[in-house]
TrEMBL record:
Record has Methyltransferase as a keyword: yes
GO annotation terms (biological process): methylation
Organism: Shewanella surugensis
Cited Pfam families: DUF938
Keyword Thylakoid in annotation: no
One Gene Ontology term of the molecular function aspect: methyltransferase activity
Keywords, ordered alphabetically: Methyltransferase, Transferase
Protein name per the record: Class I SAM-dependent methyltransferase
UniProt-listed SUPFAM superfamilies: S-adenosyl-L-methionine-dependent methyltransferases
Length: 208
């Protein structure tokens, strides 16, 4: 069965790519190697790579998404785009060297708590000192949903997978701190999402 670009299309990616780029531009201005965790359709990768010609944008995801990522990389090639790595956050990450930037969008609410813990452990292992971690997605704060739509979305997530769900920002920040990461930016974004920028200030002091 043949596939078209529309088969690997996310409207959410189209809606949020420009606002996310606005946040990323100053943060990744001096980065050299960005690892994108959970590249999904590949739309973010091809869009962002064109705006950061000075860096290498490494896509990654589970195998089920690789066909779509390859499709977008072929349709909109850039010299600085890298074919997707097979990366499961709960398994050893297939990196040969550390990276100075990691980006992920709309992934942590899909993951279980154990997977989010594994994600931060991997970030702690593979991000260089002074490296940047940028996360986009919905989060709860002080025990509350940021909107009624996020509350409904959380119910939908848990109906599909009881292990998934919107995570507490305070818990995310604790996991980051355990890996030597400090929250530098928390920006309100469209559709009741947050953009989080962490900087790795020292090596992790806790092995998870």
């Amino acid at each position: 069965m043949s596939h078209t670009q529309q088969d690997y299309f996310s409207q959410a990616c189209e809606n949020n790519k420009a606002p996310i780029l606005e946040q990323l531009l100053p943060i990744f201005a001096n980065s050299r190697n960005v690892l994108e965790i959970g590249s999904g359709t590949g739309q973010h990768a091809v869009y962002f790579a064109k705006h950061f010609p000075h860096l290498s944008w490494q896509t990654s995801d589970r195998p089920v998404y690789h066909r779509g990522i390859h499709h977008w990389l072929t349709a909109q090639p850039s010299n600085n785009l890298r074919s997707p790595l097979l990366l499961d956050v709960t398994e050893p990450w297939p990196l040969t060297q550390k990276v100075d930037a990691i980006f992920t969008a709309n992934t942590l609410h899909i993951m279980s708590k154990a997977m989010v813990e594994a994600f931060f452990h991997g970030v702690g292992q593979h991000l260089t000192i002074q490296g940047n971690l940028c996360i986009y997605g919905p989060f709860n704060q002080q025990g509350h949903y940021s909107s009624d739509s996020n509350r409904q979305f959380d119910v939908h997530l848990k109906n599909n997978n009881p292990s998934s769900g919107i995570k507490a920002l305070e818990w995310i920040e604790r996991l980051a701190n355990q890996q030597g990461l400090k929250l530098k930016i928390k920006e309100n974004m469209p559709a009741n999402n947050l953009f989080l920028h962490f900087k790795k200030e020292n090596e992790s002091f806790k092995n998870q």
